[in-house]
Design a protein that fits this description.
Blueprint (H helix, E strand, L loop, with lengths): L4 H14 L4 E7 L5 E6 L6 H6 L14 H8 L5 H7 L2 E7 L6 E7 L2 E8 L4 E7 L6 H6 L3 H18 L4 E6 L2 E6 L4 H9 L1 H5 L1 E8 L2 E8 L11 E5 L2 E3 L2 H11 L11 E6 L5 E2 L10 E2 L2 H17 L64 H9 L9 H8 L7 E4 L3 E6 L2 E6 H18 L5 E11 L2 H17 L2 E4 L4 E8 L6 H14 L5 H13 L9 H12 L14 E5 H7 L4
Parallel strand pairs: 1-7, 11-13
Antiparallel strand pairs: 1-2, 2-6, 3-4, 3-6, 4-5, 7-8, 9-10, 10-13, 11-12, 14-15, 16-17, 17-18, 18-22, 19-21, 20-21
The structure holds adenosine-5'-triphosphate and magnesium ion (MG).
The site of magnesium ion (MG) has 4 residues, from helix 1.
């Protein structure tokens, strides 16, 4: 199925691997729209085979009638090249080792235009130019060059991980993006994802009922908030299977927090006869004769690996890892921006919350659910005694009524309003505030950001690096100063003033979140991912001032009622509702 440039890349690379190539080079121009070229050092084709290869159902992978069944089980249809050629301009150069000269074949819209002898190395090069030149509807369906390029990277990444012994090189618009020599799987994982991955992966090698499971799973240091890095291969072909994904997660048990996903790269080796790979046109979904058995094998295989001695770090809580290079920041109140009006107070977060505390003891200020009396006395203090004026703002807003705020389960803020009770979800409220702020910043000069005392060097994988490049400009508008450091390494030099937590983690989370958001305006996507990742979380203890400031800033937004992802921010319970429930009415 050829529906976009990345599927062309997939088919061509698959053919090169089928031809036994040990070196494959992929060249992409304009997101693959103007050129996709795959060059391999595989077995090559004779002139005759070269012509035949573009005919439908002409797979050379059938050499004898008995083979037919086997071919079917492996899913060769012999139609990939034919369908690619019918919607593009193709140029093929190929030579088998036994012959001195190669063949040059050019086709347009599936018709042969040129056939001649040519000097050529062993192997095959196929260039696909001007994809969908003769099918305008499909051409229009393609996304931006960047988006198509990212799809290609996703596809290439899968091959990188299923064939580590094959050398891969990728060029984009004449520039080399990467070159990986043939190497071990462990080395390949490190080359793609960085050293951190090599240090935190656990080998899996498990055989059960004719199923062999091999590869690596990540320990808890590699948990991520998105599914991104989960690679499952069946006989080295990438597949997608929800239930088998779940089998891997299940193996982690309670170590895996809700909403987190482990890293894995696993291959299932099993008799092709026991799988139907023809249920989906791109063969990405498959049907197993006995899926329960496969599920159990994965579950047990991964469990066994996690229980092995090497998996001990899994039991280590990430909080216990000392952060030696915790950057020192200016105190939050110096960060007040002169351009923001006084309504918008920056948050002051309690340092103590980030410090480890002995298990079993409550947080020192846990009981700071302020009592009404406390709120009362605070209110009675004359203005200008050091209490933030924002408080007065809220009293003003509530027309002098008695107002108190309470935090419930470190998640919800309760407050009295004239007509009854409001309940605010602290995380989504802050998200809404940050989202609107971010949208405003895109149109203005960037806000002041805080320079990190120790700039953070971050190594990204190719895909994330691309995403970063796409959003870098917008991030800078929010106060993130991230610079290229060569290769896929970037340096975080400064972050927005009201950001909390580890800069690298936040940057990675923004990238993840951005990838997960469906097609929307790029600014909205950046603003929403930034807001979600920098907002206070459920579980953060807030002081009275913080809660009041939050409510205040929330009501200054354009749409205080819904967060950028569409979740409600505020629930109101009218007094009558309560009266009714207490049978007062
Ligand atoms: N890079 C290559 N090196 C050698 N032979 C190739 C190469 N690419 C294609 N071929 C030959 O062309 C034939 C047709 O390729 P095509 O991709 O259309 O079908 P297929 O790979 O047999 O099946 P499928 O449709 O499942 O991909 C292949 O069977 C193979 O013999
Ligand atoms: Mg093929």
């Amino acid at each position: 199925m050829v529906d976009r440039p990345s599927s062309v890349v997939k088919e061509l690379v698959e053919n090169s691997l089928d031809a036994g190539a040990t070196e494959i080079t992929v060249v992409v121009k304009d997101g693959g729209k103007s050129l996709i070229q795959v060059v391999d050092n595989g077995q090559g084709m004779t002139e005759n085979d070269a012509i035949l290869s573009f005919e439908r159902h002409s797979t050379s992978k059938i050499s004898a009638a008995e083979d037919l069944h086997r071919i079917e089980t492996l899913g060769f249809r012999g139609e990939a090249l034919a369908s690619i050629a019918s919607v593009s301009m193709v140029e093929m150069k190929t030579r088998i080792p036994e012959e001195a000269e190669g063949t040059l074949l050019k086709l347009e819209g599936g018709l042969v235009k040129t056939l001649e002898k040519t000097a050529w190395q062993q192997g095959t090069s196929i260039s696909v130019k001007n994809l969908f030149f003769n099918t305008p509807a499909r051409r229009k369906f393609m996304k931006t060059d960047n988006a198509e390029y990212r799809h290609i990277l996703t596809v290439v990444n899968r091959f990188l991980l299923s064939y580590p012994e094959v050398s891969f090189t990728l060029y984009r618009n004449r520039q080399q993006v990467f070159h990986y020599p043939g190497q071990s799987l462990e080395e390949r994982i490190e080359a793609i994802f960085g050293e951190r991955y090599r240090e935190n992966i656990i080998p899996v090698d498990f055989e059960f009922a004719g199923i062999h499971i091999s590869g690596f799973v990540g320990n808890m240091d590699l948990f991520r908030a998105s599914r991104g890095y989960q690679y499952l291969f069946l006989n080295r072909r990438y597949i997608v299977n929800k239930s088998l994904n779940y089998a891997v997660s299940l193996a982690y048990g309670t170590v895996l927090p809700h909403g987190n996903y482990p890293f894995y790269r696993l291959n299932l080796d099993l008799d092709p006869e026991k799988v139907d790979v023809n249920v989906h046109p791109s063969k990405i979904e498959v049907r197993f004769e006995d899926e329960r058995m496969v599920f159990r094998s994965i579950l047990n295989g991964v469990k066994e690996a996690l229980n092995s001695a090497q998996a001990v770090p899994v039991l280590r809580a990430p909080e216990d890892v000392p952060e030696f290079f915790e950057p020192i920041r200016k105190p939050p109140f110096q960060e007040m921006r002169s351009d923001s009006n006084n309504l918008h107070f920056p948050f002051e977060f309690r340092q103590s919350q980030r410090e480890p505390r002995p298990i079993g003891l409550p947080a020192e200020r846990e009981e700071s659910f302020s009592s009404e009396e406390e709120a009362e006395s605070a209110r009675e203090e004359p203005p200008g005694t050091g209490r933030p004026q924002v408080k007065q703002q809220l009293y003003k807003a509530s027309q002098g009524e008695r107002v108190s705020v309470w935090q419930l389960h470190k998640k919800y803020i309760f407050s009295q309003i004239k007509s009854g009770l409001i309940i605010i979800d602290q995380h989504v409220a802050h998200e809404r505030i940050l989202f609107e702020q971010a949208m405003e910043h895109f149109d203005k000069r960037p806000p002041s950001s805080q320079q990190l005392l120790f700039p953070r060097t971050v190594e990204l994988n190719t895909e994330d690096f691309e995403v970063l490049r796409e959003i870098q400009y917008y991030l800078s508008k929010l106060g993130f100063i991230v610079k290229d450091f060569g290769g896929r390494t970037v340096v975080i030099e400064a972050v927005p003033t009201d950001i909390r937590g580890d800069e690298e983690t936040i940057l990675r989370q923004i990238i993840d979140d951005y990838k997960n958001l469906e097609e929307r305006d790029i600014r909205e996507k950046v603003a929403a991912s930034f807001a979600c990742k920098s907002a206070i979380k459920a579980g953060d203890l807030l002081s009275q001032e913080e809660m009041i400031s939050l409510i205040d800033r929330l009501f200054a937004t354009k749409n205080p009622y819904f967060c950028p992802h569409g979740r409600p921010v505020i629930v109101t319970i009218p007094l009558e509702e309560l009266d009714k429930r207490f049978l007062r009415l």
